[in-house]
């Protein structure tokens, strides 16, 4: 029983960051119809920003987080303005190829700048874990969960309660009509990509200190983000959050009770099942079609 | 970063040749091209008639094993510089042709092919991981080129009948045999395994479980993790709930650091013993902090206690040279393999009297090198008629306590 509780705690912590990764990607796909292959690199980028600010500049850990979010936002805006805006209207394959190119180029850049050896970031949290009866969890991971939850709520409010969010949702439903209603679609696209990118960077900045930081760390994260998005339904934010937790649960219980060798395969087994039985995702909204 | 120049030279030569041909057709019309051709020809000549003996180095410089592979390469460079400072071998300088196998078996095989066919190296060292080395092995047979294996520990490498393999690192069965002497002292009753999910990890779990069963020690869980996995909480939670008192962990330093941190976060109180010799204990102490205290490690080199190594003078020289170059002391336990690997290859070339694969392969059987971890002498291993060479290095057990490394007697 205590082992099961420990798996559940692990799942909560892992799921929070998976959700964060999924939201950023689903937002960009839903609104812009762009398959963002740079998502994993933006995750890596956020982690390296943490490394620069905390380890190289010696600044405060909590200051580094917003810096990483802003840096991710800026990099996302630059990618949108330089690569995606000129390609507006071209077919999805062309955009996809360009994004794959950007992914490889950016990953090589991180390798070139920081080298292949993993870096770690010191945190202000105590090493001794918080022990709650039979289960224990590290303070750092609790903080990561809290920060991820906060970011998810902020994103939700931004999209559902603000004028920008309203414009984003309008663009998502019908770009031409939104444009006729006076929505600046160009601005919405740039904002969406920047917000999605900043969420990826935030996830990297939060998880970098938990694990170690290296140039390819984003690859597995990106694959999982795609899995979550497919699970939750393309463009569905609530779906991405729930999808994140489902993936984390599948991995934890799969590794705990079936076989740890197939831990990363568990999530993909679920996706295959979802694609067979409910190809639009578990939580797809009907209005997306058409 | 790594010195990339010699790596790409082979490729550039070809490019230069092609562009030279293109340039020649324009030569009559455009006179400014002439100096460019002269330059290209000079570069071409420099590459083709190099007065060096090449040794191919096939290591993971990116990916999951980047830290370890980079240390091995830096150790290899110290050996090459030391040999070259003394005049090289056979009157020529050694040139290391270093390639990155990206911690990926497919890449490791491709890199070996490139080194042999394009760079024309007569001998290789590599490829760090067991799965990487196993992927390279068919290429060695195909091109009849010997390789000094410096790190890999899967028993399969020297038992499948590949006569081009000469291993200086201990196979996991040798580690298990060395460990056998201490299991009574440690009063092991039941152990779990947490191993990397590849030939190295699974091979170690097999060899250690076999030895322990003979000793009457119970075997509990055998958990695996992907080589790139960063979160082992699920496996560790499962191990936390088992009735074993000891966990044998096999993987490289980056994953070990994560495991110690995550085990501490889960409140896992079992004794942890690691194998494989790629622990870089000082890096673990620096990155995992208090979480590393009480952990034990089977290692193949003692840079902390040069006087206890089989070759104290050479160890002192190597460690001081390593520090002089500004490398992290933590890397010594890994880099010495690159150092010994190059010295082994160089000794064989010297003995062979020529830099040709067949002659070097024959000479490898006759050399005796004073390695940092004992004499390197190859004995036959594997099926008769196509034996691989296996040297018998020492294995030590160390313990981290209060952030320091202590030696335990085996």
In short:
The complex is a heterodimer of chains A (290) and B (410). Chain A is mainly α.
Biggest sheet of chain B: strands, sense, closure? 7 strands, mixed
Mean pLDDT of chain A: 88
Our estimate of the beta-strand percent of chain A is under 5%
One letter per element, helices H and strands E, the order of chain A comes to HHHHEEHHHHHHH
Structural class of chain A: mainly alpha
Distance between the termini of chain A: 48 Å
Helix content of chain A: over 70%
Radius of gyration over C-alpha positions of chain B, nearest whole angstrom? 23 Å
**How many beta strands in the DSSP annotation of chain A?**
2
Beta content of chain B? 15-25%
Could you please describe the fold and organization of this structure?
Chain A has 290 residues and is mainly alpha-helical. Chain A has one domain. Helix content of chain A is 73%, strand content 2%. Chain A has a two-stranded antiparallel sheet. In chain A, a hairpin with a 2-residue loop joins strand 1 and strand 2. Chain A is globular and about 60 Å long. With 410 residues, chain B is an alpha/beta fold. Helices cover 44% and strands 19% of the residues of chain B. Chain B is built from 13 helices and 16 strands. In chain B, the strands form three sheets. Chain B has a seven-stranded mixed β-sheet with strand order 2-1-3-4-5-14-13, sandwiched between helices. Chain B has a seven-stranded mixed β-sheet with strand order 7-6-8-9-10-15-16, sandwiched between helices. In chain B, strand 9, helix 10 and strand 10 form a beta-alpha-beta unit. In chain B, helix 3 crosses helix 12, helix 6 runs parallel beside helix 7 and helix 12 packs across helix 13. Chain B is globular, with a radius of gyration of 23 Å. Classes of the chains: A mainly alpha (290), B alpha/beta (410). The interface between A and B is large, with 39 and 35 residues.
